[in-house]
Amino acid sequence: MSDPRDFLPLTAGFFEILLTLAEGDAHGYAIMQAVGRRTHGAVKLLPGTMYRAFARLQEQGLLEEAPAGSSGDPDDSRRRTWRLTGLGRAVAAAEADRLAASVRRAERLDLLSDAESS
Amino acid sequence: MRLVGGVTRLLMLAFPRAFRRRYGADICRNARDLAHDAFREDGLHAVALLLGRLTFDLLRGGLAERRHALVPSPRPTPMLDTLLNDLRFAYRSMRARPGLTWLAVVTLTLGIGASVSMFSILDGVLLRDLPYPDSDRLMSVYTTIPEWRDDPTLGGSWNRARWSYDEYREWKARQESFTRASVHAATTANIVSPAGAEQIRLGLAGVDLLPMLGAAPVKGRLFSPRDREEAAAVAVVSHDFWRDRLGSDDAAMGRALEIDGEPFTVIGVLPDGFEFGSASTAVWLPIYETRPFGYFPGNTGDMEHLLEVAGLLSPATTPAQATGEIDRLLPAINGADHLTAHGGAVVPRLEILTAGVRAPLLILMGAVSLMLLVACANVATFLLSQAVDRRREIAVRSALGADGRRIGLQLLTESLMLALVGGLGGLLLAAQGVRALTLLAPRDLPRLADVSLDHRAFAFALAASTFAGLLFGLAPALTVTRAQLAQTFGATRFGSRGGRRLQQALIVAEVALATVLLVGAGLLVRSFLELNAVDPGFRTENILRVNTSPDTSAFFDSEGEFQAAAMDAHMTGVQTRLAALPGVRGVAVAQVVPFTGGAANNNVTGEGYDGADGWQTIASRRFVDPAYHELLDIHLVDGRFLTPADDRPEAASVVLVSRSLARRFWPDGQAVGKALNWWGQDSEVVGVVADIRERSLDTEPLLTFYAPRRRWSTLGGDYLVRVESEPSELVSAVRNALAASYPDLVVVGIEPITELVAESLAEARYRTRLIAVFAAMAAVLALLGLYAVSARSAAARKREIGIRVALGARPGRVTSLLLREGLGLASLGAGIGLVLAIAGSRVLSGLLYGVSPNDPLTLAAISLSVAAMAVVASLVPALRATRLDPVRVLRNE
Questions:
Q1: How many CB atoms lie within 10 A of CB B152?
Q2: Complex ipTM above 0.95?
Q3: How far is CA B821 from the centre of its chain?
Q4: Cα–Cα distance for residue pair B207/B548, rounded to 1 Å
Q5: B423-458 pLDDT, tens per residue?
Q6: CB–CB of B26 and A6 under 8 A?
Q7: What is the model's pTM?
Q8: Chain A residues with CB-CB distance to B under 8 A?
Q9: Exposed/middle/buried for B255, CB within 10 Å: 0-12, 13-18, 19+?
Q10: Of B26, B54, B68, Cβ closest to residue A80
Q11: Theoretical Cys-Cys bridge with B695: which of B275, B699, B712, B884, CB 3.0 to 4.6 Å?
C-alpha cells in the first residue's frame, strides 16, 4: 500500500470531495451540492473540474466506483456512484492532520482571527 | 435546459474522446441539474451566468485533460513507490531477525571481502594497463633460435633470444612495423655517490627508450642524439636515488657518479614512481653502439647478446605481421652476427612481465569465486528456512492483495539489501585483505606496487554483491511464490516440500564446491611438501653466503690492463679473513651461488663425441675454489676433487664435470682422463661429481663443469662460508670483520643459503597458503550449512522422535536415523565434488610438483575429511534431539 503522505498536499477541491465521500457513497451531483453547502460557497465544483478530479482520484486509487444505488438515494439507480477507498480515507485523514497542524501553528503564532473561518 | 445540455455536449468536444465516453453523460446531466436549480433560485439570469461559468470550466478542463493525457502528472511513479516501500520493509524485517541478519552479513562479508581482495591483486598485476602512453601497443621483440629448444640451459628462452647491437641496428634500419623502438638491458654495478659505495641495479637504455615510455624528467633532461654522437658518459637517475643518495639536491645536475670505476655525469632525474624492467633500477646509462657494458676481460663467451628490444607497434600492424617482417629481414640480421636467428617473436610487454604469474593468479581467482558461491549457497539456505518461518506473515500479505510475484520481488529486494550490506562489509574487509595479500606476496611478484583498492575494486564489489544477492535471493523468492503457500498455511509439517528440497540441493552444492577447493588445496600442499623435501644435491644447512661487490677498477692498471695478481690477492685476502673467524669451518669462493639465478655458460664438446645435434652443447661453467665441493658436501662419483695444486696459474688445465655432462659425452662411463674442450682449449677431466640443482628445487640439474678459479683469474664477489653453528649468528661478525679489514668493499648482503632456498619457494608457498585459506573458509561455511540443515531437520521431527522414544526406540537408532539425512547429503556433495575435481584437475597440473593431479592419496584423504566433518556437523543436533524428554515433546505438540 502506498503511503498516504505521498499524496499531500491536496487541492481544496480534492479534499472536499474526499470529505464528502467520507460520510458515505454519493453520486456526482450530490457531491457537488454537499461541497457547496459545507464550504458556504467558498468551493464551487463545476462538472468539468469535478469529473477530472474523479478521474485523477480514481487513477491514484483514492476513489472507486460503487455499485449503482449504493448511496441510498432512490433516483440514483442510473447515476455513477463514487466510494472512498481505504487509501482514500487514509489520505483524507492525513490531509486533515496536516491542516490541523497548520492551524495549531497559526494559533501559537497568534495569527488566527476570532471570526469563524469561511 | 435542453439548451444547456446541448451547449454542454458541444463544449465536451474539448475533452479527449476517452474521457467524453466515460463521463460525458454524467457531466451533461450534472449541467442540466445545475441549470435546473439555478433557474429555480434566480431565473434565467442565473442560468445565463451558469452557462458562462460552464463554458469556461469545460473549455479549460477539456484542454487540461488533453494535456494530461499526453503527460501524466508527476506523482511518485508506482514502480518507484513500491521499491521504496520494499526497501523500508526489507530494513524492518532485517531488524526483526537480528540473528539471521548478522549471520548472513558476516558470511557475505567474508566471501565478498576475500573476492574483492583477490580481484585487486589480479587487476593490479594482470589487467591494468602498463603506466606508459599507448601501452597496449608496447611490445617486446625477440629473435627465435629453435636449436636451443632441447638445450637444458637455454631451452627456456629459445623464443626469447636477445639481440646484439649489430643485429638490432640492421633490423631497426629496415623495419616498418614499429613507430618507435629502442634497446634496453639491466645489470648490477658498483656505484660511488655522495652517500658512499654500494651495489645498485643499473638500467641500460637506448637513447629513445625513456622518451618512448613517456618519462618526463622532473629535473634536467634525458639522453639525446647529441649524447650518442659524442658517446657522452651521462647518466639519468631514478627519483628514489636522487632523493636518498643525492639529497634531492637541485644542483645534482652535472655531478659526477663513479659507476664500476668510470665517471658519469648526472643529467636528469626521472619522475617519482617511474619504473621499467625493475622497480629498483637506480641509475640509467645510455647504450651506444660503441659502448659495451658488462664486459670483463678474460670473460668472452656470448656477452654480446644482452639487449632486449621494446617498441611501439604501428596502429595498422598486428604482432603477427611484425613477426613476419622479422622473418623477412633475417638475412640482414644474421649477416651482421655470428648467431643464427630463425625467426622473430613480438609479444606484448604486459604478457612478458606477467607470464609466470598469470596461471596461478587466475587459479586463485577461480578458487575464491568458488568460495563466494559457497557463501551464497549458505545464505540461501538460511533465508530459505526463514522464508518458511514467515509463512504466516506472507500468507497475510497475500490475503491483503499482494500476489505471488509482488511478494517474491519483495523478498528479492530484501536479499539485495542484505547483499549490499555484506558487500559494504566486504569492502572494509578487503582494505585490510589487500594489504595482507601484498605483504605476504613474493617480493618478485610483478607490478605488486600497482595493486590497490580503487574504483575498479568498488565496481567489482558492487557487481559481486548484486550477483550474490540475486543468486541467494532467488531461492526463497521462488519457493514462496508457489501456490503451495495457501496449502501450508496452518499445516504443522516442516516447510513446503519444494523449499526443503531446494535447501538440500543447496547443501549438496556447497559440499561439492568445498570438496573441489579442498582437493585443490590438498594437492598444492602435498606438492609444496614434495618441493620442500627435494634434495638439491648439496648442503644448504650451516652455509652463509657473503655477497660482495668489489671495486673492479682497482684491478686494472693505468693502461687498462687487467691485473690478475691484484684481484687474486684481494679475493684470497677476504677468504683468509673470513676463514679466521671463530666458528668458521671453511670458506670457498663461488662464481655463481646456487639459487641466485646467476648463469655463466660455455659451448663445450667432449673428446670423441661426434656432436650429432649440429649445435654445440652448452654447459654451465663454474670457477670454484678447490674446497668448494667438499664445503658443500657434493658427492664425488668418480676420480678426485680439485686440489690447490690444480689451482695455480701455471698448472695444467683440469676440470670436474657433473654426472649428466659426463653421461652426455661419455655414456660408457669413462669420463675421467678424457678431454673437455671449452674456450678453445682442452682440459683434462679429473673427476665426476653429482648433479646439483642450482636454479631452483623444481628445475632439473644443468650440465656443469668446474674449473679452478685462480688458474683462470676470474673475478668474483661471492664467498660461501661453512659454519659450525647457526649461520645467522655469524652475520654481524662477518660484517664487522669485513668493515674492519676492507672498509671500501661494498657488502651487498649476507644470508644463509637456507634463506635463499626458502625464497625460491616463496611463490609456491604464497599460492598454497591462499588456496588453503579459501578452502578452509569454504569448508567451514559448508559445515555451518550442514549443521543448520540438520538442526532444523531434527527440530522439525521432534514429534516423530518423541513418539519413537516413547515407543521404546534406543537413542542409537534415533541418532542414526537423523544422521542419515546429513551424511546422505554430504556424501552426495562430496561425490559430485570429487568428480568435478578430477575433471578439472588439469588446471592445476602446471603448478604441481611430484604429485599427479589425480593423486589417489589426496583424493582419499579429502573424502575422509569431508565425511568426518559431515558426521560432526550432523551428530551434534542428532544427539541433542535424542536427549529430549519424549513426554514434554509430545505434550507441547
A1: 19
A2: no
A3: 40
A4: 31
A5: 999 999 999 999 988 888 887 788 887 788 888 999
A6: no
A7: 0.70
A8: 1-3, 6-7, 28-29, 32, 46-52, 54-56, 60, 79-80
A9: middle
A10: B26
A11: B699
